[in-house]
Amino acid sequence: SCFWVAVLDGNVVGIVAARGNEEDNTVELRRMSVDSNYRGKGIAKALGRKVLEFAVLNNYSSVVLGTTAVKMAAHKLYESLGFKHVGVVEHYALPGMTRSLLERMFFQVRYHRYRLQLREE
C-alpha cells in the first residue's frame, strides 16, 4: 500500500492512497481528495496517475475504485484516466451507518464501481 500527498507552495492540496490486493492482483484507488480551492488544476489527475504508475511498476493486472461522488467531474476524471464504469449499488450504506428508518429516508447513496484493466491475467 502507498499514500501520496500533493503539496503546492508548502500547502497540502491533495491526497490519494492505493491498496494492493494480492488475491485478485488488483490495486484499489482509495481516498482521493483535493482541496476545493485547488480543484480544476490537474492535481487529482496527477494523483490518479501516481496510483496507475504504482500498479504498473508492481505488476498488478488492474486498478479498481468505488465512489459515492455525486459530482459528474469526479466520474469524468476517472474515465479520463481510462477507468470503465462497471456497476452501481443503490442504497449503499456508508461505514458507520445503522440503516435506521431516518437514514434510509434521507441518505440514499449510490456507490459507483470503476475498473481499469492494465493487462490480462
Automatic annotation (TrEMBL):
Record SUPFAM superfamilies: Acyl-CoA N-acyltransferases (Nat) (SSF55729)
Membrane topology: Single-pass membrane protein
Annotated N-acetyltransferase domain residues: 1-108
GO MF annotations, alphabetized: L-aspartate N-acetyltransferase activity
Enzyme kind, highest EC tier: transferase
GO cellular component: endoplasmic reticulum membrane; mitochondrial membrane
Catalysed reactions, as listed in the record: L-aspartate + acetyl-CoA = N-acetyl-L-aspartate + CoA + H(+)
Localization annotation: Cytoplasm; Endoplasmic reticulum membrane; Microsome membrane; Mitochondrion membrane
Keywords, sorted A to Z: Acyltransferase, Cytoplasm, Endoplasmic reticulum, Membrane, Microsome, Mitochondrion, Transferase, Transmembrane, Transmembrane helix
EC number: 2.3.1.17
Main location: cytoplasm
CDD domains: NAT_SF
Family: Belongs to the NAT8 family.
Protein name: N-acetylaspartate synthetase
The organism of origin for this protein: Otus sunia
